[in-house]
Amino acid sequence: MAEDKTRFVGTWLKADSPACAALYPAVLRLEANGLYRGVPAPPAQFATWDVGTWQPTDASHLAISTANDAVIKYEFSLAGDTLTFVDTQGCRFSYRRDG
After folding, report:
1. CATH of 2-97, one of 2.40.128.490, 3.40.50.300, 2.40.10.340, 2.60.40.1930
2. pTM for this structure?
3. Which of 9, 25, 29, 43 is such that its CA lies 20 to 30 A from the CA of 85?
């Protein structure tokens, strides 16, 4: 699945943020080497995705390590420049590619 990673690489800005998505960062930077960095807003706020690893596991799931080092599979869809996640609690939130 290494070739599939390239479509995710880059900086993503939270576009759709329901209350249930408050623990996810405002900015998500996915690196080609499988590492990521999340930036919360405001900066001192806790984000469940702070720094860690990410990896596609199949055509509709990404495994992302969380702030407590657990690796969780998140359902996703990628349409154009919009990356939408659904977490294990059913919370749906989206990011738009920056740039």
Report:
1. 2.40.128.490
2. 0.91
3. 43
